[in-house]
Structures are given as structure tokens and as C-alpha cells.
Design a protein that fits this description.
With 287 residues, the protein is an alpha/beta fold. The protein has helices spanning 7-27, 44-60, 75-87, 106-112, 124-132, 140-150, 171-180, 195-200, 265-286, and strands at 3-4, 34-40, 63-69, 93-96, 160-164, 184-188, 204-207, 225-228, 232-235, 241-244, 257-258. The protein binds nicotinamide-adenine-dinucleotide. GO terms for molecular function: methenyltetrahydrofolate cyclohydrolase activity; methylenetetrahydrofolate dehydrogenase (NADP+) activity.
Length: 287
């Protein structure tokens, strides 16, 4: 049987470490790290994500400051708010919940965030730092993927890793992190030919396609490690909504280890957001 990598348990460890770091900063006379969360509009999924992030911040002792803006807020107002938050020394992290309404240029907004406060790791400076292996803030989901992998893999050198999906949020950054660890990384996507054959050569598969149960048992070689990043909401026969990953996990008994959906990558993403906020606060303190 494949080992199920428990993302909830690992996330709880990361959160506990983060809370301890916050307590240490405060005990030393510093300000509790502050995370500003900007939500424009009332997309229901975004509201849920923001609510979860803020609840976890509270548990870890991070001050979270919510900025809820109406869906028709002009772009200039959003940019002006980011300028104010950039200049506020009590704010260490700024998160703009995506997607933004159509009239707002998301790239322009993300580029406006001070790279030192960019806890999502989407600013071009942080993207550049990641690709040159020179520090910076790393996007939360790829950071969480690496922690999950680190719980079952000691040495990545020479391992064949197949990443499915080439998005800026998951596929590309996770590939960069794996390259830094000297894995041999193949990045695949919707146009990749013979994907099952490519996947079958992998020691590690990171599936981030958003395609339910794309990765079947016969795609996975015995003993491979499989990380399932995918989250797709589907309605079952009884009309209940459930979350489905990119992997047919029930067909992967021959794998060495797999992450479940839910309870794998998802909890790690929020935990890493909090840990990035503390990292940003610590760096600001010594800057
Ligand atoms: P995206 O839509 O930006 O990119 C998807 C990528 O997968 C693209 O490169 C596309 O070419 C590729 N792809 C799509 N279908 C494919 C197929 N059939 N075969 C091969 N490649 C295929 O998505 P994203 O933002 O990177 O997210 C990917 C998935 O991960 C989504 O399900 C998303 O909800 C999930 N996600 C989860 C977390 C988390 O915290 N667990 C965080 C971010 C994203």
C-alpha cells in the first residue's frame, strides 16, 4: 500500500512553528507580524479562502488586516491602497486575493507590491530570485509541495520528476525548486505528447493540471512519489459537491507515497502563507 502523506498533520507542524516564531518576536519587544489581505468583489470561493487565511493568522498570533473593496472599485484605488500598505512598517505581508474583477489588471496590481512584502511570491523580483536561486519569497503552494516531498525524500539529486502543468502559480515555481535540488525535471502541459509514457518514467510526479483523475494507475511506476495539487469541485450523483484531485489515488497502491485530496497540498498552502509572513517580518527587522 502506498503511504498517504498527511498534509493536515504537516501543516499543523508548520503552523505551530510559525506561532512559536511569532511569540519569540513579540517576547523580544517586536511587533506581531502583520498581514494585509485585499479582497475586491464578492466571489464566493475567494471569500471562503480569505476567511480561512484570516482564521489561521489569528491562531498563529499574526495580525491580519482585511481590506474588502467593492467589485467596481477603480484600479487606481487598489493601487493607492497597495502604496499605503507598502509604506506601513507594521504591515509585513500583502496578499491580493485572485481573481480580481476584469477591469483590474492583475499583473499591474501584483507588480505594485513591495517584493519584500509579497508573501504570495508572485512579484517578478521574487520570480527572478526563485529562478536564479537567490532567495526571495517563494509561492506558498510550491513551498508546501516541497515540504510534503521532503517528508518522504532525502536526496533529490538525479531523480526524474515530471511536473504536470506549467502555471506561474504552481508548475513553473515547483519546477524551479526541484531544479535547485538537482532533480531532472520535465515540465509537461496540455500539449505534451504521450503524457502517460512521460509520467511512467518519473520517480516523482507533481500533478497540477486541474483535470480530475487525470493521472491513472498505469501512468505511475512502482515506488514513485505522487503529489496531487489539483482541486476540482464536482457534483456527485446525490447532488453533493465534493473536491477531486488530479490523480486517481485509488489506483496508486503501487506508488511509494501519495498525497490525498483533500488533506494534502491544500492545508500546506495556508500554512506556508503564514510562514512567509513571518519570514518577511524577520527580514524587515534586519533590513
Ligand atoms: P492553471 O489552469 O493555471 O494551469 C493548468 C496547467 O495544467 C496548464 O499548464 C495546462 O496546460 C495543464 N493542463 C491542464 N489540463 C491538462 C491535461 N489534461 N493534461 C496535461 N496538462 C494539462 O492551473 P493552476 O493555477 O496551476 O492550478 C492547477 C490545479 O491546482 C487546479 O486544480 C487548482 O485548483 C489547483 N491548485 C491547488 C492549490 C492548493 O492549495 N492545493 C493551489 C493552487 C492551485
Amino acid at each position: 500500500m502506498a503511504q498517504i502523506i498527511d498534509g493536515k498533520a504537516l501543516a499543523a507542524q508548520v503552523l505551530a512553528r510559525t506561532a512559536a516564531d511569532v511569540a519569540e518576536i513579540v517576547a523580544a519587544g517586536g511587533d506581531a507580524p502583520g498581514l494585509a489581505v485585499i479582497l475586491v468583489g464578492n466571489d464566493p470561493a475567494s471569500e471562503v479562502y480569505v476567511g480561512r487565511k484570516i482564521a489561521q493568522c489569528r491562531k498563529a498570533g499574526i495580525r491580519s488586516i482585511e481590506h474588502r473593496l467593492a467589485a467596481d472599485t477603480p484600479q487606481e484605488v487598489v493601487l493607492g491602497l497597495i502604496d499605503k500598505l507598502n509604506a506601513d512598517p507594521k504591515i509585513h505581508g500583502i496578499l491580493v486575493q485572485l481573481p480580481l474583477p476584469r477591469h483590474i489588471d492583475a499583473a499591474l496590481v501584483l507588480d505594485r507590491i513591495d517584493p519584500g512584502k509579497d508573501v504570495d511570491g508572485f512579484h517578478p523580483v521574487n520570480v527572478g530570485r526563485l529562478s536564479t536561486g537567490t532567495g526571495g519569497l517563494v509561492p506558498c503552494t510550491p513551498l508546501g509541495v516541497m515540504m510534503l516531498l521532503d517528508s518522504v525524500i532525502e536526496d533529490y539529486r538525479g531523480l526524474n520528476v515530471v511536473v504536470i502543468g506549467k502555471s506561474n502559480i504552481v508548475g513553473k515555481p515547483v519546477s524551479m525548486l526541484l531544479l535547485e535540488r538537482e532533480a531532472t525535471v520535465t515540465v509537461t502541459h496540455i500539449e505534451t505528447k504521450d503524457l502517460p509514457d512521460v509520467a511512467r518514467k518519473a520517480d516523482v510526479i507533481v500533478a497540477a493540471a486541474g483535470a480530475p483523475h487525470l493521472v491513472r494507475g498505469y501512468w505511475v511506476k512502482p515506488g514513485a512519489v505522487v503529489i496531487d495539487v489539483g482541486i476540482t469541485r464536482v457534483v456527485d450523483h446525490d447532488g453533493n459537491t465534493k473536491i477531486v484531485g488530479d490523480c486517481a489515488t485509488h489506483e496508486l497502491e503501487h506508488a511509494k507515497a501519495v498525497t490525498p485530496v483533500p488533506g494534502g497540498v491544500g492545508p500546506m498552502t495556508i500554512a506556508c502563507l503564514l510562514s512567509n509572513t513571518v519570514t518577511a517580518a524577520k527580514r524587515a527587522a534586519v533590513a
